[in-house]
Amino acid sequence: MTVFGDITPEDAWDPDDAVSDLVENLRRRLALLLGLSILTDRDRQRLDLIHGDFAHVIKRILEDKLGSQHG
């Protein structure tokens, strides 16, 4: 159970997880925040851009990891 009283995986945090897992976890949290109605349009736009940035970083991490396994 997380500090939020639920068992959703995006609320779990283990600093020893793989970096790609940590970043993906953060991306999922941001995706959940995008659905909040209390955010302004600018807040949603900012979160959406961060969400996209995290997706790009995750892709790069995975590409680097896969590349290093074959190099």
Describe this structure in words.
- Helix content is 65%, strand content 0%.
- It is flat, with a radius of gyration of 15 Å.
- The protein has one domain.
- It has helices at 19-34, 41-70.
The gist of it:
The chain is flat, with a radius of gyration of 15 Å. It has helices spanning 19-34, 41-70.
What share of the residues does DSSP label as strand, in percent? under 5%
Mean pLDDT, rounded to whole units? Answer: 75
Number of strands: 0
End-to-end Cα distance, whole Å, is 40 Å
Radius of gyration: 15 Å
What is the makeup of the main sheet? Answer: none
Q: Could you give the order of the helices and strands?
A: HH
Supply the helix-strand structural class: mainly alpha
Domain module tally: 1
Compute the number of helices.
2
- The rough form would be described as flat
Low-confidence stretches: none
Helix content: 55-70%
Helix/strand layout:
Elements: H1 19-34, H2 41-70
Helix pairs in contact: 1-2
Task: Describe this protein with a few key phrases.
65% helix; 71 residues; mainly alpha
